[in-house]
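Question: I have long wanted to understand how a fold can be written as tokens. Here is the record:
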Amino acid sequence: MPLTEAAVSGVFVGPHSAAATSERPSGSQGDGRVAAAGTAGAAAARPSDNTEERDGWLGLNSFSRPLAKFTQYSQLRTLAKLQQPQAAGGASVSSIAVSRDQQLFVTAGMSRRIHLFHYDGLVQRLPDSHVPRLELVTRSRISCLSWNSVAKEQIASSDHDAGVTVWDTVRATMTMELEEHEKRVWSVDYNPADAHTLVSGGDDGKVKVWDLRQQASMLNIDVKVNVCSVKYNPAACHYLAVGSADHHVHSYDMRRPGAPVCIFSGHSKAVSYVQFLSVRTQCGFSSVWCNLGESRQCSVSCA
């Protein structure tokens, strides 16, 4: 069978690395711009004796540290390249998720298969390290993966047929299907502090929070626009970031989910991915889809 290199650039830079390529909702071609926004940024002057100015300066300083850490690198060094057999529907990789101990990672995408690999073995180029240690066959093309950081054997996937599925990587079986979304589900994320809580978002404009001890969702948020990405704050799990097709990042406090705490702007296209850099700093990505073959690139917006 012909081999196709997984289209993920910079994936194997380190255990925390992640990249994704996939189709996105209408209007998500991306703006190619880099924008910074939020409650704080870099400050040059020392704070005055004014309490409000001093608090603002401290906030700016707090924001600048993780941003500086994130932007200090100008390029990524490839440590390994993963080749996979061409499967039905192509071998494009839409999502990668890393295990809690950072030893294993799973990939999935258009091939309707989830593959599990050993990170160190691949980087060290051990024999057969490119061969998946596990293959799970899915019913649909996968849009996103999330690894449960509490129950380490459990992963979740979202797919193009409006489904969210929970998998057991030890028993190599599907354990649960969640089917409340009405359109394609773009994103799924486990609560980092609770093995039973999962959030998903999709083209129906809904963010759904699931308790995996029951079949029905326990909370629904109507964003009223295509949801492209959902992500919990790993250090403060009651905060949730939502990237959407209206070019904004919506930040929710799940203790009071009636309305977003803040809405960040800066992109001129759909926000395809969101990621927290620290407790206070979140990052949104808008993809740039080129008309030159399979060329893809991403821009970054922080808030």
User: Anything to note?
Assistant: The two ends are 45 Å apart (CA to CA).
